[in-house]
Protein 1
Amino acid sequence: MSQAQDPRTAGPKPPFPDQEQEHPGTERKLDPPVDHGEQSYVGHGRLQDRTAIVTGGDSGIGRAIAICFAKEGADIVLSYLPEEERDAKEVEAQVEKAGRKIILHPGDIGDKNYAQSLVSTAMDKFGKIDIVVNNAAFQMSRKSMDEIPEDEFEHTYRTNIFGLYYITKAAMPKMKPGGVILNTTSIQTFRPSGELLAYAGTKAAIANMTKGLAQLGAKNGIRVNAVAPGPVWTPLIPSTMPPEKVKNFGSQTLFERPAQPVELARIFVFLASDEATFISGEIYAATGGPTPL
């Protein structure tokens, strides 16, 4: 009989080695390395033969979602930035290893035409869309409003909010009853950091939009939920945060560590599956401790 996993030791604890990356960062340079479920996750056919669009799928939470969805039987349309092609190819290998199909489709989710093309690609290649995961996001840490360039502020909203709007608007009419839309929000929705002013604002908007979209989707049998992670060890951390914060990232949680992406992906799998047929309009927090409301 296997023993239950101690949450205190389910992932590495800080302090972490000194490390910096250029945005958007890469998995290969992360120290300690990340668990996306390549070895640790075992599928049970909960998403058998479904088609999922996953944005921001080359690294971090999106990468883990794509891998775990594939292990559950889903085919994937993977969205990511062109400069992250190498990481995306690694996801492709994992999905194919799980015996599923994957379409790599790079681009900027904040561009309307590109976002719509993800939907048309899914329909052309797989003939349907069962699941949309709006996970792609941009963040940058700034110490004051004066340090936030106006184009960066706009880019944050265009990526995090407009991207979700474009792809959801295009996908919902194509989805049949039982379809699922899943959004990635954040603990920043409930406990915003001044240094992440733009990012936190977008995540609060995503939580609000999730509840509104759930009402609209219910008319056609489509469920809409969001997951609100706390600190998660991904390339965004060393590529957008100051070194002192990277070193101790996640130490403030009850378990004194950040989450591993696979720990979040398990929640997305549950919400995407028929095990969650009576769940819509919810924000599932996975913050390593109580979420302040």
Protein 2
Amino acid sequence: MENLDNFFKCAFTVDNVIFGFDEGDLKVLLIKRGEAPYEDMWALPGYFVYQTEDLDSAANRVLAELTGLRNVYLEQVKAFGRSDRHPVGRVITIAYYSLIKISDYKINAASIARKASWHSIPTVPELAFDHNDILTACFKRLKRRVRGRPIGFELLPPKFTLTELQHLYESILETELDKRNFRKKILSMNLLVDLEETQEGVAHRPARLYQFDRDKYEHLFAKGFNFEL
């Protein structure tokens, strides 16, 4: 039987994929690393897990230390354990993701992060380690989630137009949605409240404003309602 000591030569890290929506654009939060390996390269906000720390606590701590973000709901996605993914030694990382409204948070780079900033998803550069693969996996999870849960509404203002809602989903799903079919399906769910108000101060014809009825959704969800876009 192999020596058990050989199984305790592995480190663990957590990497956070924080998606943010801002003015019709889906972005991801990246840091510029201030230490080797991959110094000066962009990367996901991630670092090592302490020996006495559980994974969820580590994910929240690392995110706060590197970017200043706190009280962000993080969902565990999967582990990445390719044996050569870290040049120093065997490191297994656990990926987490979240979707937030950029305007609600202030970024403050610290610790090994020389800089922290939002990057539009289509223009993300080559990242350190296998972080492009991690980003891709979390983006796929996000796409599946927004089709089955109305989490996208949290990224919009309290009052929004159907066009703004459609642009949000088009940005996340990376596809153009048929305007007529999208509106028909969304309105048929009866989860929007028509505020009987229109936009103000716009150059084009003012559009009607709506609000997401969260209480109604929670009530329907408890009865087995399936939100499917």
Protein 3
Amino acid sequence: MEMVTLVTGSGSGIGRAIALEFAKSGHPVVVNDIVHEAGKRVLSEIEAGGGEGSFIPADISNVIQVKSMFEKARKKYGGVDILVNNAGVPGPFSLVADMADETWHKTISIHLNGTFFCLREAARLMMVAGFGRIINMASIAGLLGTVGSGEYGAAKAGIINLTMTAAKELGPFNITVNAIAPGMVGTPTNVKLKDKGSPFINTAIEGTPTGRMTDPEEIAKLILFLSSEAAANINGQVIRVDGGAGISIGMDDFMHSFLSKKSPTVMKIKSTE
């Protein structure tokens, strides 16, 4: 069964893998990204593989652009059957005491507000259709907190709670809502950092029982499953894909030591001791 799938932030990384996986499985895919060149490049990959799709650029933190994106998808395809809320942005690492207002606002705006805006528009279409699948990209940071990325962990925690609330509200309309909580993922950027000997990446891998990063394609296949008939009664769940990293604290120890050495707040305290 062909189901129209909209993947936010699908111009690169995990989002690209998800878009290509769904297209390969015969689903028309709406590629979304704020970077036009990246989005068009993924659409070209989809079409080169014999898949069907379209590219709709939009900043998901802008509610007007989100409404426009869903309206364009509705006009072209009649609706959206599957929404994958994947778009996000990396933030600069800092301790909470040192965090800039801009870092907090930007991360919350894109990750949490953007997920809400897209979920709300999708829900309105899906409730009328009587069917839908929504998968939100969370993180183990949203379950455990993470030293150095308080704003990111808070946004992901909000997404997890929103997922459970939406699952309760939308379940009666044959709409399931679930979240994926990855650990360290082997995106092209992270693979390059690993190859350069990044202590951040290496420490994360050392603290993962399976000893490796998760491949983006592994996440894509899980999301495809959650969208299938076989997963029709899986609802309101947060599924970790982290190789067991969530039970390790090595990464937090590294980040705390690393950031404390250059933290202006910590240095100020030490200077008065």
